[in-house]
Amino acid sequence: MDKKSAEKRIAQLKEEILRLNRAYFTENKTLVPEAVRDSLKAELIALEKEYPEFITPDSPTQRVGAALDGKLPKQKHLHRKESLQDAFSRADLDEWVEIMQRALGSKHAIFEFETELKIDGLNMSLVYELTPTPTPPPPIRRAQGKRGEGQSLHSYIFIRAVTRGNGVEGEDVTHTVKTIHAVPLSFEIPRRYAGRQPAPIFPEFLEIGGEVYIEKDTLRKINENLSDEEKFANPRNAAAGSVRQLDPAIAATRDLRMFCYSLDGSSIDALGIETQKELMEFLSACGLPVEPSHGVLHSIDEVEALYKKIGESRDSLPYDIDGIVIKVNDKRMQKDLGSTAKAPRYARALKFAAQEASSRILDIELQVGRTGAITPVAHLTPVQLAGTTVTRATLHNEDEIKRLDICIGDTVIVRKAGDIIPEVMEVLVNLRPEGSKPFHYPLHCPSCSTLLVRPEGEVVHRCPNENCSAMRLQRTEHFASRYAMNIEGLGGETVEALITANLISDTGDIFFLQENDLMTLPLFKEKKTSKLLSAIDKARKTPLERFLFALGIRHIGRETAELLAKRLDWKKAGEDLTPSEIALTLQAISEEELLSIDGVGAVLAHALKIWINDEDNRALLHTMENGGLRLTLSTQGTIAQTFTDKIFVLTGTLPTLGREEAKAMIKDRGGKVSGSVSKKTTYVLAGSEAGSKLEDAKTLGVQVIEEGEFLGMM
Fold first, then answer.
1. Helical (H) or strand (E) element with 329
2. Which of 52, 119, 386, 408 could disulfide-pair with 211, CB 3.0 to 4.6 Å?
3. 401 touches 441 (CB < 8 A)
4. In this predicted model, what pLDDT tens digit does every residue of 634-659 receive, in sequence order?
5. What is the domain partition of the chain in residue ranges?
6. Closest listed residue to residue 579, CA positions, set 551, 555, 557
7. Where is 90: in which H helix or E strand?
8. What is the distance between the alpha carbons of residues 581 and 575, in angstroms, rounded to a whole number?
9. What's the chain's Rg over C-alpha atoms?
10. Which spans in 118-246 are helix H?
């Protein structure tokens, strides 16, 4: 391909990929299979590599850049960021209306309200800069879309993303926000705005506000790839932690999303936008993602009814919300109402009753995880939250303890939502008892007394002693767990007894346990001994993906283990593998080759190579092999990929299939399993006593199938 043809093809590919990405990530439309989008991007990457002079900042290939060195830089906002004042009841809303009527000098002022779901995420400002009039790209002939009819040549390019911070200054997180596919790297002002009379004066910068978030199902997948001590407590923490990563490659694996809802006032005036509803339409027309259920209501009665309706159904949403945002729709009236020192008068955040309660910290202990990570855990006076009795809550790390200024004896606010790990949110300092002392983070491991280390760039302290008894206990318990080797009867109490009696020192010793050894322990009688030895014997032939997960390598969760088992060249398809053969394959593959696998990032690839290059770990694999362990490869290659690009959601109890069995059948045939129903869901597989997911499917028009129909698709 000559240079001129390459330039034209690059422009065509960029526009087409942006169109397809916008449909998929912003409009929930799948115009082509994901593999097609990937192949187009691969072609663009290859052409840009050959002709780097044609790479532009808004190219889809430029979302993931180099990692930052050191701390996130501070950046001032172009306009001060305001917070919304909260409301919790109808009385609060009525009082708000009266305040606005007084501010306008009219007891009879009538308001129209625009409402949006209040996403529980990380507040973010996007800055776009006006660019010189570009040369129109070569025309593209395509069957779908008529984007050209609405185009103008008033273009803006993404230059910066800044967290809210203190409202005046935040952290510059441009490098990670660029990885959010829903955030356009450039856009053109739609002609219906650019062509207004009198002609608008386009601002040099547009500052767009929104919320970065992570879906609940995505959080579950992220946590599956993290050790227990590294798991995120909720989607908001996951979003904040991902955005604040120094390495954008990590953020790119987290499937970050964003909804936009505001624009700086001077730009609103310049563009002649008259209502909040029109602003949302403008943002959407520019290709920015907006929360889809926003709308206009005409009274507080209607607002209250919407609030109750959403409160009843919010658990079925794919993302966390903590209320609804209510704004006076008319922008001129917003300007007349103005703001207090802290918040705009024209808006309120109507919050749901939080799943939070007060409790007292009785003690703080340090837990040692299987990778050596130290997690402080608060022991609490019992409190009812989200339908369960909570007596313990995570404090995450030393930095969090210092930030909250926690003392033993403090009264604290504890939060728990659904199946999320309980966490301490705030200290009620006014209730602090006299003479209380701050909690000082220990210098040594609570299990083996080894001096703790805190690796550069991490917030977690770690025990560096691989022979630490607590780490060995956690590693062995994880190795035997349900989704790993599934050795029934080898739980925490049994593992602790075996380690204490010096019957095992690592996971490889499990395969050498004998009846005589076990019968010497008080825990074991003949029946229990027989069951455990039978379970160990059964585990001697285990699917490769389970074994890779069982090894407990940092950052390798269940999904990643499945990915590696399917994508790496094990060279013995259809035959059993020995642990030594696994070691040889993992040693031979380079980090660069691992990174070529979609879904494997730099951190994971590096952790895997560090693990396999450790002589002790290779010796462990050799011990397991001598104990008779063999691994089976998936037969996916021989199974028709019937469910490629199809997404299933399971609900209820199936007549004959277990839930994990049904999931395995879907994945073996190329399909995906999600935990929540959305417009992207292909089928909901429903059994008896199906829950709210069945109603969600009916509402969204998703096809519902039963087990018989599912089996007929095999």
1. none
2. 119
3. yes
4. 655 456 778 888 899 998 888 888 78
5. 3-62, 86-133+149-351, 356-431, 469-539, 543-634, 640-712
6. 551
7. helix 90-104
8. 12
9. 28
10. 174-177, 191-194, 216-224, 235-243
Look at 341-345, 392-396, 531-535 and tell me which has the smallest mean pLDDT: 341-345
Q: Which residue has the tokens 């990174």?
A: 595
> 356-431 belongs to which CATH class?
mainly beta
Q: How many Cβ atoms from other residues are within 10 Å of residue 708's Cβ?
A: 9
Backbone dihedral angles phi then psi of residue 361, each to the nearest 5 degrees: -85, 115
Contact 278, 334 (CB under 8 A): no
Q: Which of 118, 178, 221, 231 is catalytic?
A: 118
Looking up tokens 């909570």 gives: 390
Match 């109808």 to its residue by tokens. Answer: 90
Residue appearing with tokens 């199936």: 654
- CATH architecture assignment, domain 3-62: Orthogonal Bundle (1.10)
Length of the chain: 714
Q: Which residues does 474 contact at the CB level (< 8 Å), separation at least 6?
A: 228, 368, 369, 370
Determine if residue 552 is left, alpha or beta; phi over 0 gives left, psi from -120 to 50 gives alpha, anything else beta. Answer: left
Burial string for 406-434 (b: 16+ CB within 10 Å, else e) reads bbbbbbbbbbbbeebbbbbeebeeeeeee
Please check whether residue 72 is in contact with residue 283, taking contact to mean a CB–CB distance below 8 angstroms. Answer: no
CB 660 within 8 A of CB 284: no
Give yes or no: 118 in active site.
yes
Q: Could you tell me the two tokens for 294? A: 């926003």
- Region 640-712: CATH code: 3.40.50.10190
